[in-house]
Amino acid sequence: MSAAGLDAVLPLLACPHCAQSLNRQGSGVVGCVNGHRFDIARQGYLSLLGSRSRTDTGDSADMVQARVTFLGAGHYRPIAEHIAAMVAAGPVLEIGAGTGYYLGVALDGLRDKGSGAAVGIALDASRYAARRAAADPRVGSIVADAWSRLPVRDGVSSTVLSVFAPRDPAEIARVLAPTGRLIVVTPEPDHLAEIRSAVGLLGVDAGKTDRLDDAFGGLGQPMKRRQLRAAMNLTRGDIAALVRMGPAARHVRGDQLQAAVAELAEPTTVTMSVTVSVFAAG
Fold it and tell me: Per the CATH hierarchy, to which homologous superfamily does domain 3-188+204-227+275-280 belong?
């Protein structure tokens, strides 16, 4: 995390132990009035884990590298650009931010719109992902558990992003500004359908969108919703990276993946199919 990224988001952060505001306590350290102290990692991120926080679900170094490879090739760029078009104001908080790819594109969009608050917080349980997100000087990169109380103050996030990521409705409602927006990306049942069984990807529940509406009913019905669908021409290397960057990486052995990918055409046409939902607070 650069000094600029930290200083920009520090007023938005909260101590994971007592929820008090955080301030610099000297070079490389932040803390609260109750004496809780947190060191800024050498790689630039800040770990704000509470006593009950979990990080065992965070991406491994290999998963993060696979994510960098796949997203860097631009296959999900249409998703990122649509998210950016829906972001009306900052600060932007992304929960389960990974490498900060979607957050970075959203901040680019705010800059192009002339927004004065083009700064963001990238929250993720993986320290490997946090290192990547910290490279963006507009971003405060934080290691945190999405299922615990978020280390963010009440009502300070103009936009909250959840892209293929965990989301706690109560915590999102707490940190969202009174006129803020929540933007959620969920996969459709036909997302990656052509390779799902071949490489061991988990299935997508057809009722995902309905459950999303139920979960965020307190924010009202979505103000906007759009399905994005496109054909991606993926090499075997692309497909291997796609599998390695997601949950399937935890239960598909490397040799199994290599054998399965070798059976696929080069390239293989794969469907990208997601729904982008925008909920408005207030």
Answer: Vaccinia Virus protein VP39 (3.40.50.150)
- For the chain, the structural domain boundaries read 3-188+204-227+275-280
Name residues whose C-beta falls within 8 Å of residue 254's C-beta, 6 or more positions apart in sequence.
Answer: none
Return the SS3 of 145: coil
Token pair for 189:
């049942």
Query: Average pLDDT per run of 10 along the chain, which is 282 residues long?
Result: 75 96 91 95 91 83 96 97 95 97 96 84 96 94 94 96 93 94 95 90 76 80 89 96 88 86 94 95 78
- pTM value surpassing 0.85: yes
Of 120, 103, 102, 216, the residue nearest 168 (C-alpha): 216
Q: For the purposes of burial, counting CB atoms within 10 Å of the CB of 129, is it exposed (0-12), middle (13-18) or buried (19 or more)?
A: buried
Bond into 267 cis (ω within 30): yes
Q: What is the rounded distance in angstroms from the CA atom of residue 100 to the CA atom of residue 70?
A: 13
- DSSP track, 7-32: HHHGGGBB-TTT--B-EE-STTEEE-
Strands 176-187 and 224-234: unpaired
Dist. CA 93–CA 162, nearest whole Å:
9
Rounded to an integer, what distance in angstroms lies between the CA atom of residue 81 and that of residue 102? 8
